[in-house]
Write a structure and sequence with these properties.
The structure is a single chain. The protein is of the alpha+beta class and 275 residues long. The protein has 10 helices and 7 strands. The chain has a 4-stranded antiparallel β-sheet. Strands 2-1-7 form a 3-stranded antiparallel β-sheet. A hairpin with a 2-residue loop joins strand 1 (22-26) and strand 2 (29-32). Helix 2 crosses helix 3. The protein starts with a helix and ends with a strand.
């Protein structure tokens, strides 16, 4: 029995060594066999060479984040969550309910938001070093060449689904072929200008053929709307969308800056393939 225990312990130790063994080093920072296998499992459909390059890029980014001392605390995350909720004219409780209706846990949403904020800080640091700016002329040119992006519907044809129980309504929307007499269904054409800003934004941002999240309609009903068709589209005034365009252009330039930066980092990196 003792010999068997020793043998099993040795096998276990050997396996752990293989799993935690180093596959690649990037500027003397290790990428383990476990990281490589896990990435291949999650990134199906791409070659091992592409997986390796993605891991190398991630390692370079992590090193740069450490070098710049970039971090995010819980207060920053909560401030961002509250800003997002406020910009959508939602309370924090309503925002959490919308996440829940999309089957997104609040905890995982905050984790994703933390990573997004870190990437934004990294992008800003790199972008600011290049001193690239976006001005009104750039925004006007983009507006003229992409006017279809700034058209909004004057009216929308929708199918409303309402119920007193939120869970029942969500279950019905996952399987609309099921028969449930408690679900109220009606079609309507809505003038978007007649809606409150929160509902207007929600409907206009929902693609044709998609459902809005389930939202409280009044004290007794919950409702979700299937956007059947957006009608009578009109072009928004430039001044109304100017900041949106400038933000979009800045984001595009930031992505290009990051690509250039890490292409240079990759070309200069000391990468060793161990196994």
């Amino acid at each position: 029995m003792k010999k068997a225990f020793i043998t099993l312990a040795c096998i276990s130790s050997l396996y752990a060594g293989l799993v935690n063994g180093i596959a690649i080093t990037v500027n003397n920072e290790p990428i383990t066999l476990f990281e490589l296998d896990e990435a291949k499992t999650h990134l199906k459909g791409i070659s091992q060479d592409e997986v390796v390059e993605m891991l190398i890029s991630k390692k370079l980014q992590t090193s740069e984040i450490k070098r710049l001392g970039i971090s995010v605390d819980e207060f920053e995350i909560m401030a961002r969550v509250e800003d997002i909720a406020k910009s959508n004219r939602l309370t924090l409780i309503q925002f959490k309910e919308i996440l829940e209706s999309k089957f997104i846990s609040y905890s995982s949403y905050k984790d994703q938001l933390k990573e997004k904020i870190i990437q934004e800080k990294l992008a800003n640091a790199i972008f600011n070093e290049e001193s690239i700016s976006v001005d009104d002329t750039d925004a006007k040119i983009y507006y003229q060449n992409h006017q279809s992006e700034f058209e909004v519907a004057k009216s929308v044809r929708v199918t409303k689904y309402a119920a007193q129980n939120k869970r029942i309504l969500e279950a019905y929307l996952r399987n609309p072929l099921m028969i449930n007499p408690s679900i109220i269904v009606e079609s309507e054409t809505i003038e978007t200008s007649s809606l409150n800003p929160k509902l207007q934004s929600l409907i206009l941002e929902t693609k044709e053929g998609d459902f809005t999240p389930v939202i409280p309609y009044n004290k007794t009903l919950f409702v979700a709307m299937l956007v059947d068709e957006k009608l009578e589209k009109e072009l928004q005034d430039y001044e109304r969308v100017k900041q949106k365009i400038m933000g979009r252009l800045r984001g595009k330039n930031e992505r290009k800056s990051i690509e250039r930066f890490f292409q240079k980092q990759r070309s200069q990196a000391d990468v060793k393939i161990i196994r």
